[in-house]
Amino acid sequence: MPRAGLTPAAVVEEAARVGDAAGFDRLSLAAVAKRLNVAVPSLYKHVDGLDGLRRAVAVAAAGQLAEALGRAAMGRSGPDAVRALADAYRAFARAHPGRYAALQTSPAPGDAEAAAAFYAPVEVFQAVLRGFGVAEDARVDVIRAVRSALHGFVDLETRGGFGLADDVDRSFGVLVEGLVDLVAGRAAGSAPG
Amino acid sequence: MPRAGLTPAAVVEEAARVGDAAGFDRLSLAAVAKRLNVAVPSLYKHVDGLDGLRRAVAVAAAGQLAEALGRAAMGRSGPDAVRALADAYRAFARAHPGRYAALQTSPAPGDAEAAAAFYAPVEVFQAVLRGFGVAEDARVDVIRAVRSALHGFVDLETRGGFGLADDVDRSFGVLVEGLVDLVAGRAAGSAPG
DNA sequence: CCGAAAAGCTAACTTGATTAGCTTTGGCTG
DNA sequence: CAGCCAAAGCTAATCAAGTTAGCTTTTCGG
User: Fold this and answer.
1) B1 located within any domain
2) Which of A38, A96, B93, B130 could be bridged to A42 by S-S, CB 3.0 to 4.6 A?
3) Is residue A56 in some structural domain?
4) Domain count along chain A
5) Please, which pLDDT band fits residue B166 given cuts at 50, 70 and 90?
6) Residues 135-174 of chain A whose Cβ lies under 8 A from any Cβ of chain B
7) Is B155 left (phi over 0), alpha (psi -120 to 50) or beta?
8) Cβ pair A171:B138 closer than 8 A
9) Single pTM value for the model
10) Minimal CA–CA distance to B179: which of B137, B132, B136, B135?
């Protein structure tokens, strides 16, 4: 039989697809192996077990999200940049729910590479808020607020946490305008709330 | 050997403790059985397998959260009610991370009892916003924004998603004041946007 | 052409969920 | 008070998934 020609990257990519389709919590070596027409133990030549696969998917997803956010923010500033960031964030989660879920884990203590990868998307937020004029010492709080709101919304949305029917896009707009106000209120020259 | 004297409620309660201690995703029949000094199959007399146990924990948690939120909101209104609700929400998630995680699932389609239980906490939010004077047609959006922000914050917090060090309480305060502003801006008599 | 590293496989073991069916407890009735 | 019987709990067995060990075979460099 000819070889399958796997690589770590190919395995991780297929795993990300499985996770997007079935949910990150249902990601299994068995499913990935079947999709790649390979026996389960063969995957161990490329990834470090299920935990290692999950970690690799998360690290890759962090890079992809950071890249998408960076592209959205490019050439924009102020409220427009915040809106673009919010839209790109939500779009990523909707397009790749499994990868998005993979990001909602903390790296193992001491795993500096994963920690750095996970931090990349946050850095885009930082850059945008810096450009917005948010004071250095308020920036941590504002970033946390923005991340929290966006994460909460897309998490609830992708899990079906909003009872259906009502226009979810409009709700997202309300949230984002609230965030723009919050950021603007903390931008340079404003007194704290 | 004397009987263990289990009941569905006792099993679910122990499962909730296991989930809080080890994480909802690590909740297992094996762990619960061991804690109750019982063989694993014995649990099937009281709960409907692992899926049934997860569902039962989630339903119970929804009731507990709704109760805590209701207690916090009682006797308050306006911004104070929103702040109290936010604090109670966060406190619940911190005290019971496993139960909180259990709530982040959607009930199986057709499971009306679970759907109703899951909706109970949302009803408390609705009541508070109604009292705040948020217009009927804006209420859905505002509730979604508030829920999103709170959920996102506590979810990131309980997962260790905030890099350490900086004062998380202060960040939460910034978020909550932003929410109060958002709600107030949408309250009766305010122009949208 | 050949030798070794790497890729992939089979076999075996472990843990956890689940089902079937047995035993025993303990409350309730006659 | 004796005995019945439903429910509680158990053991045994099956299945699925992850993991490890160790074998075979491809493939590529020399």
Assistant:
1) no
2) A38
3) yes
4) 1
5) confident
6) 138, 140-142, 144-145, 147-153, 155-156, 159-163, 166, 168, 170-171, 173-174
7) alpha
8) no
9) 0.94
10) B132
Q: What is the CATH number of the domain that holds B92?
A: 1.10.357.10
Of A165, A159, A146, A192, which is closest to residue A23 (Cα–Cα)? Answer: A159
Rg of chain A (C-alpha set): 19
What tens digit of pLDDT does each residue of A59-110 get?
Answer: 999 999 999 999 999 999 999 999 999 999 999 999 999 999 999 999 999 9
Region B103-109 average pLDDT: 92
Inter-residue contact B90 to B147 (CB < 8 Å): no
What the block records as the tokens of B160 is 């260790």
Q: What tokens does A100 get? A: 């998005």
Q: What is the 3-state secondary structure (H, E, C) of B36-99?
A: CCCCHHHHHHCCCHHHHHHHHHHHHHHHHHHHHHHHHHCCCCHHHHHHHHHHHHHHHHHHCHHH
A1 assigned to some structural domain: no
